[in-house]
Write a structure and sequence with these properties.
The chain contains nine helices and eight strands. It is an alpha/beta fold and about 220 residues long. The strands form two sheets. A five-stranded parallel beta sheet has the order 2-3-1-4-8, sandwiched between helices. Helix 1 crosses helix 9 (about 200-215), helix 2 packs across helix 3 (about 45-55) and helix 4 (about 60-70) runs parallel beside helix 5 (about 90-105). The model has no long low-confidence stretch (mean pLDDT about 95). It binds adenosine-5'-diphosphate (2 copies) and zinc ion. One adenosine-5'-diphosphate (ADP) binds near residues 13 and 126.
Length: about 220
């Protein structure tokens, strides 16, 4: 089963994708994580993306489409993938349709995570993650079980994203509204769009998503 998690920055896409990956073996494809890895490695893509990401704007479609096309061709994606952060524009959605068609793959569900905009900045500014395994945490909503130690891998090193601040968040929200929200009608027309309550507690959101995936 191949799905998209759709929602604004801070909606909880990464949190839910990580859990689907660890409990169901589906593969999380986070374009944000891929871009941050490219920036860290200093590759050509990373050099092009760095300044754009720091401002909270969108990286050009052709770069994003190439990145995803290469990734979904990898054999692990046969287990089913979760697109987290892609597509973000109609041009990306159309390119995704074409590449899935060409490979004989289907898009089974687009799960829209509905959230109150006011809650998002609080989620974003409190977000941090394990430097070693990438597990996501929050200052208030998801602290490690043992203070300062990653629940999953035991690492004591954590990182915060440079773009997770109230200022950049305004640009990211504007990009979401202008360029990504139009994907809701795009997928609603195809009958694959389902909504979940992204304001609920993390376990409840997960329960609603697995409900959607099992046919609801
Ligand atoms: P996204 O990938 O959509 O940008 P994340 O999954 O990284 O969002 O979540 C943003 C922050 O909010 C993280 O720190 C995460 O721990 C926290 N978070 C995620 N889901 C919830 C929730 N349902 N309730 C409260 N906090 C949440
Ligand atoms: P969040 O989940 O908080 O919205 P991401 O980690 O998905 O953030 O993305 C971080 C940044 O990477 C975005 O602000 C944007 O600059 C870039 N980015 C990620 N995915 C895409 C995409 N599909 N198209 C264009 N830019 C992207
Ligand atoms: Zn860890």
């Amino acid at each position: 089963m191949n799905i998209i998690l759709l929602g604004p920055p801070g909606a909880g896409k990464g949190t839910q994708a990580q859990r689907l990956q660890s409990e169901r073996g589906m593969i999380q494809l986070s374009t944000g994580d891929m871009l941050r890895a490219a920036v860290a490695s200093g590759s050509e893509l990373g050099r092009k993306a760095k300044g754009i990401m720091e401002k909270g704007e969108l990286v050009p479609d052709e770069l994003m489409v190439g990145l995803i096309e290469d990734r979904i061709a990898q054999p692990d994606c046969l287990k089913g993938f979760i697109l987290d952060g892609f597509p973000r524009t109609e041009a990306q959605a159309e390119a995704l349709d074409r590449m899935l068609d060409k490979k004989g793959k289907t898009l089974d569900r687009v799960v829209e995570m509905e959230v109150d905009e006011q809650a998002l900045t609080e989620r974003i500014v409190g977000r941090f993650s394990c430097a070693k395994c990438g597990t996501g945490y929050h200052d208030k909503f998801k602290r490690p079980k043992v203070e300062g130690v990653c629940d999953v891998c035991g690492s004591k090193e954590f990182v915060r994203r440079k773009d997770d601040n109230a200022e950049t968040m305004k640009t990211r929200m504007a990009a979401y509204r202008a360029q990504t929200e139009p994907l809701r009608p795009y997928y609603a027309r195809r009958g694959v769009l389902r909504k979940v309550d992204g304001m609920a507690a993390m376990d409840e959101v997960y329960r609603q998503i697995t409900g959607v995936l099992s046919g609801a």
